[in-house]
């Protein structure tokens, strides 16, 4: 059977570069650069953009100006601009900023929960339930994340069953979708299949997304494994920006440009203009003075000696 026969015909990208990407940048990022990146992503056709995080600013200083970023972007009709909200204080800030959607983020390991949220998993879920109730009251959709689904930087192996029970709780409290994060990019396609096989016993595929970091170079094969199992919402970060401040050595998410190239090759619709996306990714890398981690952009610029 041809590979494409088993795949979805359309996929949706959740662009996390302005949040997951920039949160890990060591240097200062100007508000103008952030806003320019978010606008450029929307203009390239990205319809779901995680534009900031209303977390404790002493924990993640790069996200401290998220309210200013939301105020300064040019909102494109049809685009959802979302933000991370770890607690009710974060939700109130997101609401005031006009976020279209918020995201709560649990971990599949106690050790990571403590490092990332300063509390255990149960306490984090109690806080999230408050956020979801407030979001429901304001008609704001809530996305749930689970970090460390394929391994934890502090405690190692994570069982699919643990992820399933947290996913069930996030959905039961009112999340419309759960994004499965391989936060440290250690999983392989076989691990991804095992995890999804467990979750799909109980959760409709429409409620799952994958969020693959590329530390071990496995992200695209993990995404292909997920597509083969019907998952069609994929988180990615332009130019492969990022990492996780609480997972030392973890590199960025899979580059959005590389996911788009894969989807194009598989004949899966996505609605994003690859050239505009590459230009947006290169511009933020130039401004940050860092290497572009998109293999597609690297190949393209080696061939043409320029972007665009
Ligand atoms: C959960 C907390 C807030 C607990 O942080 P805490 O320090 O335990 O909070 P607290 O309740 O004890 O409050 C301490 C101070 O922080 C303030 N505060 C408290 N909350 C907020 C807020 N929302 N916004 C602004 N200020 C806040 C609060 O008002 C107080 O201020 P003070 O009285 O001292 O002046 C903290 O641990 C935190 O912000 N964690 C988030 C860390 C983070 O952003 N990590 C990266 C994102 S997760 C990730 O990258 C994984 C993901 C999603 O991408 C998926 C994947 O890759 O797998």
Automatic annotation (TrEMBL):
It is an enzyme of class 4 (lyase). PROSITE patterns: HMG_COA_LYASE, PYR_CT. Pathway: Metabolic intermediate metabolism; (S)-3-hydroxy-3-methylglutaryl-CoA degradation; acetoacetate from (S)-3-hydroxy-3-methylglutaryl-CoA: step 1/1. Keywords: Lyase, Metal-binding. InterPro entries: Aldolase_TIM (IPR013785), HMG_CoA_lyase_AS (IPR000138), HMGL (IPR043594), PYR_CT (IPR000891). Residues 11-278 form the Pyruvate carboxyltransferase domain. One of its GO terms (molecular function) is lyase activity. CDD domains: DRE_TIM_HMGL. Pfam families: HMGL-like. Its EC number is 4.1.3.4. It catalyses: (3S)-3-hydroxy-3-methylglutaryl-CoA = acetoacetate + acetyl-CoA. The keyword Metal-binding applies. Belongs to the HMG-CoA lyase family. This is hydroxymethylglutaryl-CoA lyase.
